[in-house]
């Protein structure tokens, strides 16, 4: 392609030369150049037509349906129902030195035997204390955003399921995926990636 | 040179039917199709674009020159034209001067010429393009069209004129009068911006200091759906960047609310929710707020992309161990696997419906294309950094994507055969997750 591109430029240049030579009184011609930046390019609003909004639910026949949950947004949809368990504010959770991170293999969300021992210890602490716990699921930078957000969710969920199997009440646990958005190590190598593929724990007193 | 001209003239004379003829052009009727741009071996048309001549008002800002320059850049980007710009204009209402100019340009090898006229009328600016066929002895007028725009966005006049010229020669408008939405920022804080397709006029859409991810344009170009952590959790919102209208919450369930994809008619948004236990694809009907679950599998199902017909949906599932691209009917039935043996995400169905572009992870990520039936997988990027996150231009002939080949993440564009890869953003910092808008109204 670069050769086709070069041909195009060549043609333009040839034309410029020919035209420059051929018509002294005509405006000088040059090969197409990049556009100059304009001061403040502003978008123009497309014509207004009222779009549908996600609002009052109806119940179409068949299939699994649910409704937009009422949440603290700038414009909460009217008529929606709340989520089954209201989510505690993320900002109220803080780091807890008693709960250790666990790690995952690349593109995996099963709990490795060594990490299960860490979770056993975390479960012991959680059963002895009444805190709410937030489990963060994280990924390394490999893989793409959309998939990694789902992968981080699976890691947090697998971690939660393990804790529940060890006797921690599910109602005390909230999960959140950050996908690849919050690495704790930013180099581009396996040592770093291994640290980023993790489940991290925060707690909040009740 | 002579060989090229001869070939071009043959192409010019022939009216070549293409598959696009089945779809009528979106503006105007009876457009003559001159170039077969769906076939291989497209030759470029030499087009002359002198400065626009001012017919009303005073052009103190050099708009007439800018319009010629931007129209030329747009036509060059289209891949169909080789542009000869000029530093002067052809005077209006002067047939002799026009004839003399076209004679000179034709002698220099131009096949077509654009006589641009500019009227500056206070808050409005009006541009007229008159397109001439310089291969005919009488310099036949192919088409003329006027566009009117607010005076603060004159570049859009050039984009509209370029799209019209592409329409006149191919039967389908170009993709110049469009926007790119993308994400900027780094760990912890990412905001969504929009800019013209050529990177000019960037301005923020979100400014909440949180993580704002995966913007996607609605088909009417009025809104962007995206995932934001502004409420703490990854919820799905919709912003209206051209209106004084607050963001709307689309989905805020327990778990992830991500990967939005508008249906071609704009009435439905597909998304990934994990509210029922693991990431599955759901359809939200905007008019009713009703959600319908499309996938049912214990693995990850995410990253939906509609076929332009609205009948099929491509998506990513790790149900076979690693992520691959699958296609299902829009009601969730009839799931079939499209890619095999590898790590494949981010399927993006082409506007013409025949191709799905996706991201393959090997040593780095690269973009690949495959026919929608799973045949003819071909690589589009390679050997230059990490490349991912493709989005189609509405003309189906260009893609934007993110690449870190220059050190930081930048938005690039390329032709759909992988040629002409060039950066759109060049700023410091990272620019990721592009979404190419449909043509603006």
**Rg for CA atoms of chain A:** 29 Å
Oligomer: heterodimer
- The N- and C-terminal alpha carbons of chain B lie at a distance of 40 Å
Rg of chain B, Å, rounded: 23 Å
How many strands appear in the DSSP assignment of chain B? 30
**Largest beta-sheet characterization of chain B:** 6 strands, mixed
Bin the strand percentage of chain A. 15-25%
| Major beta sheet summary of chain A | 5 strands, mixed
Strand content of chain B: 35-45%
Helix content of chain A: 25-40%
Structural class, from helix and strand content of chain A?
alpha+beta
Shape of chain A, please?
Answer: globular
SSE arrangement of chain A, N to C: HEEEEHEHEHE
Mean pLDDT of chain A: 72
Number of helices in the DSSP assignment of chain A: 4
* Cα end-to-end separation of chain A: 64 Å
Please state the average pLDDT score of chain B.
90
H/I helix tally of chain B: 4
* Shape by Cα distribution of chain B: elongated
What's the number of extended β-strand segments of chain A?
7
Low-confidence stretches of chain B: 1-41
Describe this protein's structure.
The complex is a heterodimer of chains A (206) and B (441). By secondary structure, chain A is an alpha+beta fold. Helices cover 32% and strands 15% of the residues of chain A. In chain A, helix 2 crosses helix 3 (145-165). In chain B, strands 1, 2, 3, 4, 5 and 6 form a six-stranded mixed β-sheet that branches. In chain B, strand 4 and strand 5 (124-133) form a beta hairpin. Chain B is elongated. Chain B starts with a helix and ends in a 5-residue tail after the last strand. Mean pLDDT of chain B is 90; it is low at 1-41. Classes of the chains: A alpha+beta (206), B mainly beta (441).
Fill in the keyword field for this structure.
heterodimer; A: alpha+beta; five-stranded mixed beta sheet; B: 441 residues; mainly beta; six-stranded mixed beta sheet; 41% strand; elongated
